[in-house]
Design goal:
Belongs to the aldehyde dehydrogenase family. By secondary structure, the protein is of the alpha/beta class. The chain is built from 15 helices and 23 strands. A hairpin with a 4-residue loop joins strand 1 and strand 2. The mean pLDDT is about 95. The structure holds 2-aminohexanedioic acid. The site of 2-aminohexanedioic acid has 11 residues, from loops.
């Protein structure tokens, strides 16, 4: 245990059994089987998590419904104080949780720490927000009338999260929902359940120290069948789901079938346009981290590079050179840049995508492949690769959660923008240019169609202060900063008459 995983698990309060379903501080017993969580770093079993059964799910919803009765009338700044304490608890556990995330899903330790930092940041953001949650005041058309709007909590927010950001995405949803007065039920990815157990243990102490009732922050575990309990449940007014477009389509149909709300953050197919006016030092670094960071398993990962003809050869050369310096290996070892994919299924999809792109005419520039031998025993380590391709290829149109970068050439900027937009997804995008006209055209209404559009920054690594999400098959939802909180509340318009008459709107006369 060279990296101190066992000690970290102990300090985080993660056990080997009887954890899986929690109403806050209590762990419920379930009759279901266990999910085993194996590390893609070394292939070893990290621990087991109990799958939530129907009865324990019902208890979770019962407790959540009860807790909402008191939580919704707790003053928002008091709710913010609880979130502030969660932020402090996360600070105290940053290294241990970052390490567990890194070990359980395979991103580098630095990125694991970054993920916990995102959680801390969203707590700070939510604390400030707890004294805001502003509604507007409007002018009534009737004399001695006042009109305004206020934002009320929704109730139970169901959160379904993915393995690639196993803890941060939960915190964006839950910490904002919490200050909004909602209570949360979280179903983490079945590929990273122990990181979720650790988070539950961290918040449980805060809940306990403040004598809060069970049901404010609950955890359930299992595969899509457990998620389905929430998406089909009328008692859950909002389901926020992060993951594949395939999953999102199922969830949103189930939720819409009962006219509930869903908030979706699904696949991306993010491109960087490198123009002839780019600062190539920045462009190469941005593309490199965007394409190989988290081993290509971010929804914001750079999957396509659209490069202007006159700088194409230089970009190709410098990028190939940078790729040759990448060190692949155990994500907890800080000398490595790239860790493993989440599991062997992901490796299969990676290999299949490369093969298929080649069949369609793609030319391999930096060769991929599955790594074997010492240090690679888990079978999940792959080589980041670059393929010269065309935008219309089936594989280029799809999101493969792996470090495969498709390189493409363009001549005119409008063609580059058309290529960038010419995919089913619309999450993140970027342009590398020092030319103001190009940058502004890219950001204009006729420019990028994505939820995120950057200039001289790669496609990944968004800050929590902005609204995060995207268009088209990315699902349209916005999470995290800006006014994303509105998705977790219901708006109420209030008109108050303090006159001695009852004038009707639109001047309608109705006398008897
Ligand atoms: C995700 O991949 O689901 O912008 C989220 C980023 C991170 C979040 C990614 N802050 O890359």
């Amino acid at each position: 245990d060279k990296f101190g995983i066992q000690d970290a698990l102990k300090r985080l309060g993660v056990q080997q059994e009887n954890q899986g379903t929690s109403t806050g501080t209590q762990w419920l017993d379930s009759k279901e089987a266990y999910i085993s969580s194996y590390s893609p770093a070394d292939g070893k079993l990290i621990g087991k998590v109990q799958v939530t059964d129907r009865d324990s799910y019902e208890l979770v919803i019962k407790k959540a419904t009860e807790a909402f009765m008191t939580w919704r009338t707790t003053p928002a700044p008091h709710r913010g104080e609880i979130v502030r304490q969660v932020g402090d608890a996360l600070r105290a556990h940053k290294e241990d949780l970052g390490k567990l995330v890194s070990y359980e899903m395979g991103k580098s330790y630095q990125e694991g720490l970054g993920e916990v930092q995102e959680m801390i940041d969203i707590c700070d953001f939510a604390v400030g927000l707890s004294r805001q949650l502003y509604g507007l005041t409007m002018h009534s058309e009737r004399p001695s009338h006042r009109m305004y709007e206020q934002w009320h909590p929704l109730g139970i927010v169901g959160i379904i999260s993915a393995f690639n950001f196993p803890v941060a995405v939960w915190s964006w949803n839950s910490m904002i929902a919490l200050v909004c007065g909602d209570v949360c039920v979280w179903k983490p990815s079945e590929k990273s359940p122990l990181s979720a157990i650790a988070c539950q243990q961290i918040v449980s102490k805060v809940l306990q120290n403040n004598n809060l009732p069970e049901g404010i922050l609950s955890l359930i575990n299992g595969d899509y069948k457990v998620g389905e309990m929430m998406s089909k449940d009328k008692r859950v007014p909002l389901v926020s789901a992060t993951g594949s477009t395939r999953m999102g389509k199922i969830v949103t149909q189930e939720v819409a079938g009962r006219l509930g709300r869903s908030l979706l953050e699904l696949g991306g197919n993010n491109a960087i346009i490198i123009t002839e006016h780019a600062d190539l030092d920045i462009a190469i670094r941005g593309a490199l981290f965007g394409a190989v960071g988290t081993a290509g398993q971010r929804c914001t990962t750079t999957r396509r590079l659209i490069v202007q003809g006159s700088v194409y050869e230089e970009v190709k050369m410098r990028l190939t050179n940078a790729y040759s310096k990448l060190v692949i290996g155990n994500p907890l070892d800080e000398k490595n840049h790239v860790g493993p994919l989440i599991d062997k299924d992901a490796v299969k999809m990676y290999s299949a995508a490369i093969e298929s792109a080649q069949k369609e005419g793609g030319k391999v520039l930096v060769e991929g492949g599955v790594l074997e031998g010492e240090g690679y025993e888990s079978g999940c380590y792959v080589k980041p690769c670059i393929i010269e391709a065309e935008n219309h290829y089936k594989m280029v149109q799809e999101e493969t959660f792996a470090p495969i970068l498709y390189l493409m050439k363009y001549e005119m900027l409008e063609d580059a923008i058309a290529m960038q937009n010419g995919v089913p997804q619309g999450l993140s995008s970027a342009i590398m240019t020092m030319n103001m006209r190009e940058a502004e055209a890219f950001l204009s209404a006729a420019g990028s169609d994505c939820g995120i559009a950057n200039v001289n920054i790669g496609t990944s690594g968004a800050e929590i202060g902005g609204a995060f999400g995207g268009e088209k098959e990315t699902g349209g939802g916005r999470e995290s900063g800006s006014d994303s909180w509105k998705a977790y509340m219901r708006r109420q318009t209030n008109t108050i008459n303090y006159s001695t008459a009852l004038p009707l709107a639109q001047g309608i006369k109705f006398d008897i």
